[in-house]
Amino acid sequence: MAKPDNRADNVEHLQNSIDHTIENMNEAEDYLSEHADEISPQEREQIESKNERRRESLDAFRSEIKDEAEHQQ
Could you state, in order of their start, the residue ranges of all structural domains in the chain? Predict the structure, then answer.
């Protein structure tokens, strides 16, 4: 039997994901700043691409939080 859909803590989980994603982005940006002259152009591109995907994820997480807020009303 399937478990009932308990959405009570979805916003909390989404917010935790947002917090971790922002933390990872900041760490990547700090790494780029500190090691800019030591890393290859390919590595720089990979890190920048990863952060772009993180920005897209943040938009999706925020949209999900908005949806959750609308469904709880």
Answer: 42-72
